[in-house]
Amino acid sequence: MVQKEESNPSTKVQSIDRALAILETLAEYPSLSLMELSEKVHLHKATTHRLVNSLMENGYIDRNPYTKQYRISLKMFHLGNKRVHNIDFLNVAKSMIRQLSDDTKQTVHLVVEDNEEVLYIDKYGESRGVRMQSKIGTKAPLYCTAVGKALLSTRQNASVREYWDSIVPEQKTGRTITTYEELISELDEIRRNGYAIDDEEFEEGIVCIAAAFSSAREVAAGAISISLPLSDMVDKDFYTGKILEYATKISHLLGHF
Length: 257
Known about the structure:
Layout: H1 9-26, H2 34-41, H3 45-57, E1 61-63, E2 70-72, H4 75-85, H5 89-104, E3 107-113, E4 117-124, E5 139-141, H6 146-152, H7 157-165, H8 180-193, E6 196-199, E7 206-213, E8 222-229, H9 236-253
Helix pairs in contact: 1-3, 2-3, 5-9
């Protein structure tokens, strides 16, 4: 139930702005008295009281019956949660990797983590002169792929140690990481840069640049990568810039800010 406001459109907009300011202020504190709230939003006590009552009637604010202080209700959470559940995760990410492939003219992958491996759920484009093992539905190790290392970099080192102790690293190429110390050193660099590089560690002649993306519910919802021939790494800055740009775009579209 919304209270009837004045007919002047500018007054209605002002009331909305003030109501939003009240909600945002209450969200910063466990609870506030009417006087405290009025001072923080710089409104007269009577105006604050009127807006607070309207927000209470609509379920956005509740009042502690003992302290008489106001607090934000969980209604905003429920509304935001509905938005999160309505996001089509796969379609959002797939749409973005198609754009990324068009921008870079290279092969782009979309992966998620599945039982301590990366699972390829989409692949788009074909890099010139590059033939890769990756296929939609196949899996690859975390420790020797760019997408896998990007996902590992979002974990605490203790979790990485547990992962490392649970696997038997395989030397895929002469450049494959085979010690925990090497892996941690590289993950530290990935955390600093925001992107990971597979420098012929999984397949010879192929370099991959990857970054993890987040959603409103997960710090590492998945990862994307650009795969390219070694000769194209002369344009490394271009590709690292693009992977960071698109990982950020996907995270924002999935509700992570």
